[in-house]
Amino acid sequence: MESNPKSVIGARATPIAELRDASKHYGAVVAAQGLNLTIRRGEFLSFLGPSGCGKTTALRMLAGFERPTSGEILLDGQRVNDVPPHQRPVNMVFQHYALFPHLTVAQNIAYGLRQRRPRPAQAEIARAVDQALETVRLPGFGPRRIWEMSGGQQQRVALARAIVNQPKILLLDEPMAALDKKLRRDMQIELQTLQRSLGITFILVTHDQEEALSMSDRICIMRGGRIVQVGSPRELYDRPASRYVADFVGKSNFFPGRIAEVAAGRTVLISAGGHRISGLAPVEIGAGRDAAASLRPEQIALSRKGNGVPVTVVNRIFLGEHTEYLVRNGDLGEFLVLVSRQAEAAEGGFGPGDQAFAAWPEGTALILGDD
Fold first, then answer.
1. Separation CA 164–CA 159 (nearest Å)
2. Given strand 226-231, what is the order of strands in its sheet?
3. What is each CA distance from 182 to 179, 195, 214, 216, 351, in whole angstroms?
4. Which of 99, 139, 168, 327 has its CA 20 to 30 A from that of 1?
5. Which of the 8 DSSP states describes residue 194?
6. Contact in structure between 222 and 248 (CB atoms under 8 Å)
């Protein structure tokens, strides 16, 4: 019997998960409030925000470990508010992996399969475990004990245990927090590769902006239990909707002031020191309102001669391909400038106490309010 093309397209278009006005309260404490989010099938989505912003609560509501106080949780088009975790098509990798130290690697991976009723045949479980170990690049490690594995290997075991059940969604609760920087970067690449090869939806909770920017198709920024902006890493970096998002995603300089005029798609801000800065306001801000001009450090050029803002170099940090300068202007205060190695070679470099000029193209700044 041939499938109906329209039904296939409709199935693909159906979101894999949705939060519909979902809230979670613990008495008077609001952990999450009015969350509305559509999660696409097969995407890598990250919840990003500081501790206590509600991102882990959102993840636990999707997993079924927390029941929303109000609103709805949908998985694959079905309302699952009252469905227990083990009956949901999701698996979760915890921050500290939650592996059983008294079991072998293979026994840890097989644990979920052995809880199924009816239980799969032993040969089927063994094949699934071997395949999961191959997927996470640990072939032949089945007989080992957990305490014989490195931190990165333990994380792979936790991933293998999660994917062996072939979930539709894999939830990751800061799984790389305990790894050192180099190993964390290696595992980020492995997670991306794994997600692409499996084709299932990954949802990551992290407070690490670099991690979210480098791995995600989309990022959901949270603050105070609410979603403040959702978009691709590039969208959030280039067009943050508020000062909070610009400050949380990458580095940014902020020059507070008041809106002087709004005309022809440009917004002009007069800084507290009287400096005039024009730019684009992603969210309209009326004249006379307080706001801030945002400029990324790499958008600012530093030179010995020019018509820019006169500055004094306060500090210099060599970062390899770039050098980060902290400079000071009498009106704008201190701000960061990121200079490429080539640009620095052309200018001869700067040291603390040097005089220079900081400049940026007219209209480059973003004029931002707060949430």
1. 9
2. 90-93, 169-173, 201-206, 44-48, 218-223, 226-231
3. 8, 20, 14, 19, 30
4. 168
5. H
6. no
Q: By C-alpha distance, which of 26, 8, 21, 118 is closest to 73?
A: 21
Look at residues 209, 282, 244, 190 and name the one whose alpha carbon lies nearest to residue 47: 209
Nearest to 80 by CA among 59, 66, 64, 60: 64
Cα 157 to chain centroid distance, Å, stands at: 23
Cβ proximity of 220 and 39 under 8 Å: no
**Distance (Å, whole) CA 165 – CA 79:** 21
Domain annotation for the chain: domains and CATH numbers:
13-238 (3.40.50.300), 243-368 (2.40.50.100)
Q: The tokens of 319 are what?
A: 């970062």
Listed in order, strand segments (DSSP E) in the chain are 17-26, 29-39, 44-48, 70-75, 78-79, 90-93, 169-173, 201-206, 218-223, 226-231, 253-263, 266-271, 276-280, 290-295, 301-303, 309-318, 322-329, 333-340, 355-359, 365-368
Task: Give per-residue pLDDT as tens, 137-166.
Answer: 889 899 999 888 888 888 888 888 888 888
Provide the token pair at 260. 């002087």
List pLDDT tens digits, range 311-348: 999 999 999 889 999 999 999 999 999 999 988 888 88
